[in-house]
Write a structure and sequence with these properties.
Strand content: 35-45%
Largest sheet: 11 strands, mixed
Number of helices: 10
Shape: globular
Number of domains: 1
Structural class: alpha/beta
Radius of gyration: 21 Å
């Protein structure tokens, strides 16, 4: 039985255990029919031209992992938390909420569970207004919608500035030989509200894990959203991340994606600027080795006038790793005075490493400032020679050049403790001690 057939048959059993009056009951049925029609994406589709899921789909995944009474000790996962500072935490172990490791709140803001939001009446107005309103109907998002049951629910009312960052962490323990997880997050940030969020998916074993995640983010007028994705998983874990962001007038949304590990990682990041004077920032650092594969697929849709977007993705690829950058900017006819910038720079450390880049601009307005660029090359030999002539060993010289290459992305990280953590991750990936912190 193929994975598609297994999912379709599993949905029947899944639906039988759901309440018939669920606010998303019909939405689930429509979504599974859409997935049944479209199936998993293939390389025949332009958006998936350089990324194949065939090898992943051959595994016999458990669609509903066994809920074993297996807790994890904090000392074993402490390094995955931002433990240097106090944070709100929403933690899941094998798809199940872990109250022991979490710190949620309903004090003026809601940082809690998607299952609670879907099943309790008091959350119904927000669910009806926002849930699945910007998620596209592509096959993988539809698959997640059909099976969505648990994840993070974050609602920041207007004029609230969240006092500490929020961490969303998903752990898989290896209870199953192979597991398929589908978390669903909904984040609503009210007018003039501010929030910082860190998201991480982490496998604690060498067993196969495939995660199909969907996150919807709504930024109302003058809202500020600072979002960080940390992707540094084991070699047997794969992630397909679908994030959709809707912005209203004068909102400011930033997403930083740090991709350092995992078998296959696909980041679908979509921004929709619905009001004037929106500002969107998409930045990422990718450092790969072995046969790892990371695919960044971005969209910034400029719908309203007088808006800005800034994309800056850096990639360092070693061994036989593969990187993909497919960046798309659409400027509608009414989106005059748009200022859109897109840049993708890559370094191939080894001859077998590969990068496929396809920046795209689709401009239908005539009074705009739009630019895009892409570079693929190797480390500057002259710069290496200069540093070695000053007594710096070759390995350290290469590392310093690679760090400097990625530093333009690190500069805009606004949480100092997170910035130091990422700096150390980069140093570890490069294989040297840089001897300084930022």
């Amino acid at each position: 039985m193929s994975l598609k057939e297994k999912l379709l048959s599993s949905y029947l059993a899944f639906e039988d255990n759901l309440e018939a009056d669920s606010p998303i009951h019909e939405l689930r049925n429509k979504a599974i029919k859409n997935f049944e029609q479209k199936g998993f994406p293939t390389k025949k589709e332009e958006a998936w031209k350089y990324t194949s899921l065939n090898a992943l789909l051959k595994n016999d995944y458990s669609v509903f992992p066994k809920q074993l009474d297996k807790s994890i000790d904090f000392k074993d996962v402490k390094k995955y938390f931002l433990h240097d500072i106090d944070t709100y935490k929403v933690v899941f172990v094998d798809g199940v909420y872990s109250s022991f490791h979490s710190e949620t709140t309903h004090d003026q803001i809601d940082v809690c569970l998607m299952s609670s939001a879907l099943n309790k009446t008091k959350y119904k107005p927000v669910i009806e207004a926002y849930y699945n309103k910007i998620a596209e109907d592509d096959s993988l998002t539809s698959l997640n919608t059909a099976f969505a049951k648990e994840g993070a629910y974050i609602h920041i009312p207007k004029h609230k500035e969240v006092e500490k960052p929020i961490e969303i962490l998903y752990f898989s323990t290896g209870n199953e030989a192979a597991v398929f997880l589908q978390p669903r997050n909904l984040i609503v940030v009210g007018e003039n509200a501010h929030v910082q969020i860190i998201e991480r998916h982490q496998s604690l074993s060498k067993n196969e894990v495939l995660t199909n995640s969907v996150t919807e983010i709504f930024a109302e007028k003058r809202a500020f959203v600072d979002y960080y994705k940390i992707q540094n998983n084991v070699a047997s874990a794969s992630l397909i991340d679908n994030t959709y962001i809707a912005q209203e007038r004068e909102s400011n949304c930033k997403v930083h994606t740090f991709s350092f590990g995992g078998k296959l990682t696909r980041n679908n990041l979509n921004f929709y600027q619905n009001g004037e004077y929106c500002n969107s920032t998409l930045k990422g650092v990718t450092i790969l080795e072995n046969k790892q594969h990371v695919d960044h697929n971005t969209l910034v849709h400029h719908i309203a006038p007088n808006c800005e977007s800034h994309q800056d993705y850096k990639g360092i690829f070693g061994d036989a790793s593969t990187g993909v950058f497919n960046g798309r900017v659409i400027v509608e006819k009414d989106a005059q005075k748009t200022d859109a910038f897109q840049q993708n720079n890559n370094i191939l450390v080894d001859d077998k490493a590969t990068i496929n880049a396809k920046p795209q601009l689709e401009i239908f307005a005539d009074d705009v400032k739009c630019s895009h660029g892409c570079t693929i090359g190797q480390l500057d030999e002259d710069a290496l020679f200069y540093m070695r002539s000053r007594g710096i060993a070759k390995k350290e010289a290469r590392a310093l050049l690679m760090y400097a290459f990625a530093n333009t992305v690190l500069e805009s990280v606004k949480i100092p403790e997170l910035k130091r953590r990422i700096n150390k991750l980069i140093a570890h990936k490069i294989g040297v001690n840089l001897g300084f912190e930022v």
